[in-house]
Amino acid sequence: MYEINETHDPSLMSWVESANLPNTDFPIQNLPFCIFGSDAVDDEIHIGVRIGNEVLNLDACADAGLLGEIEDDESIGGERLWGLLDGIMAFSGEGRRALRSRISELLREGSVEQTSLESHLVPAADCLFEDMPAVIGDYTDFYCSIYHATNVGSMFRPDNPLLPNYKYVPIGYHGRASSIVISGTDIKRPKGQNRSEQEAPPVFIPSKSLDYEMELGFFVGRGNELGTSIPISDAEQHIFGVCLVNDWSARDIQAWEYQPLGPFLAKNFATTISPYVVTMDALAPFRTSAFERDPDDPQPLGYLNGEQNQKLGGLDINLEVYIQTEKMRDEKIEPHLLSRSNTKDLYWTIGQMLTHHASNGCNLQTGDLMATGTVSGKEKSERGCLLELTWRGTEPIDLPSGEQRRFLEDGDEIIMKGYCEREGFRRIGLGECRGRILPAD
């Protein structure tokens, strides 16, 4: 597990004044990575670290020799070795901690490098976040919220909401890496087969039941060789960091196609991720125990059952979903809160997800993205998608504009946010994950 160290000290202040604001997502205790471009710098993309309202250009810092010897006593100063974040993601745990510590030192109040670094800061408002953080070779989406699974199962199988394997296996499916997009990208309404009239053949039309799913994503750091597995005790050494994920879902297409093999065209048309990767090191103060199972529930099988994972494998991350319709934008009505949930309610930890994924010898690779599935809690206000919130469209949501929503309509924008709070530590955030629905072609 990742340890709390001097970089998490709540008394640390930065010479970047906006990083010291009490409600910022990006104090010096966070330091999430991103890929950015800016006309104010050049026409290339760069690796950056978000700090307050600024982005620190790490490429420029490396060129200036400010990062020193980080990985295996090899200097990364003077050369651009990284491209995207894949190189940093593949660092050893020691290398990642050394880099984080060095960046923290550079940005702390009283840093002797402040004058040198000021020219390497770019206002976040001037940055373009249009590129993936890493080369995402593979994307796997899980189904790890028992409250979400129970709610959805109750709609389709009232007498047997959870299938027999759910409490034994972290259920997942392979998504489409090529249709993952960065926050702010518009989403075109997909077309697909719809069989809402059970007595008639299916028709090929734009989806009428378009939905979002509030999820947490995590990136693989170092992978494993084909034919080898990853013990649960080592799982988190293979996880680099997390982001927000909106797994857009066409529920009417899904209802017709999902049997017998599960999600396909209902989900692979688009998946939106936030631009910042919050490292597992930054999340160290916000660890919690794994989900407390009911006494009658089976314990995880041996390969998924580690003492440390049970004690601190969970994450305490607050998640929020907002909607702003086209009418709300026109009338300057602020986005409306739809739900709040927390990753503490995931039945399986991210370590268990990763270990299970590699347990058959599947070779995970640096930059692979995994997502938790919809994060929902016990209460209605904690349901992480419209399918649950409107109970399959039968309980519409009233909006402050006088509109109602059962599912998403053209022009609707979904805004997801995430943040961590714990007494004795600085609040840190994951930023935003946004997407607006455009009409189908």
Short description:
By secondary structure, this protein is of the alpha+beta class. It is 16% helix and 26% strand.
Write the layout of secondary structure elements.
Elements (H helix, E strand, L loop, with lengths): L32 E6 L3 E10 L2 E4 H6 L5 E3 L2 E2 L10 H4 L3 H15 L6 H5 L2 E3 L15 E4 L3 H11 L15 E3 L5 E3 L4 E2 L2 E4 L8 E4 L3 E2 L2 E7 L18 E8 L2 E2 H7 L13 E3 L4 E2 L7 E2 L18 H6 L1 E2 L2 E7 L1 H5 L5 E7 L7 H9 L10 E3 L14 H4 L7 E2 L5 E2 L7 E8 L7 E11 L3
Parallel strand pairs: 7-23, 9-17, 10-27
Antiparallel strand pairs: 1-2, 2-3, 3-6, 4-5, 7-8, 11-12, 13-16, 14-15, 14-23, 15-17, 15-18, 19-20, 21-22, 21-26, 24-25, 26-27
Structural notes for this entry:
The protein has 441 residues and is of the alpha+beta class. The chain has 2 domains: 9-126, SH3 type barrels (Roll); 139-438, Alpha-Beta Complex (Fumarylacetoacetate hydrolase, domain 2). It has 10 helices and 27 strands. The strands form 8 sheets. Strands 7, 8, 9, 14, 15, 17, 18 and 23 form an 8-stranded mixed beta sheet that branches. Strands 10-27-26-21-22 form a 5-stranded mixed beta sheet. A 4-stranded antiparallel beta sheet has the order 1-2-3-6. A hairpin with a 3-residue loop joins strand 1 (33-38) and strand 2. It is globular and about 75 Å long.
